[in-house]
Amino acid sequence: MIGIVLADDQHLVRAGFKSILDGEDDFTVVGEAADGEAAVTLARQHRPDVVLMDIQMPGVDGLEATRRIAADERLAGVKVVILTTYDVDEYVYGALRSGASGFLVKDTEPAELIHAVRVVSRGDALLAPSVTRRLIAEFAGRVAPPSPSPVLNSLTEREREVLMLVAGGLSNDEIAQRLVLSPATAKTHVSRIMTKLHARDRAQLVVLAYESAMVTPGWLG
User: Fold this and answer.
1) pLDDT on residue 147
2) pTM for the complete prediction?
3) Hey, how many other C-beta atoms are within 10 angstroms of the C-beta on 74?
């Protein structure tokens, strides 16, 4: 079962999401929170696979709650997905830097929500990569000028190639096709890169690639 925590200060939003998610045999909503403090508490109590997190909530907001979850080693397996009203919400970039695995627009279709939860719970793909990539490209320059990161020196030439394609929004299968590898080999490369760079998931790899000037907006087309 995929355990889910819903964090949004609007009861109707939570009720709508819960209705959709409870319809799936392999989903279980283990808790609901109306603020970030409660979301962190529920994450620590239930260790869910996914937290669907609104940003603007009273008290502790979703951004701070995401930081707290990402910083807690006991919650390493908990993936946070940011819920936003618009796909160009400037807070989302900060959330991704804080450890969120991706984001969803609140008016997403039910099938997309279900697919997104499954994808993120597996940790093998970034949500809406083309949109997320555009958002990161738009806001990365506002945070700090990109500069080469010495941490990338630990990567092999092949791993650097794979990281660039991850930053381009490609899935493991697409990376395998591009580099003429097996999907299993591509997945192994991504896992090793995350280990070397101490990244929770692919979302953090994308942020790191942009912030270290390894890739620039639009490089993959």
Assistant:
1) 61
2) 0.76
3) 10
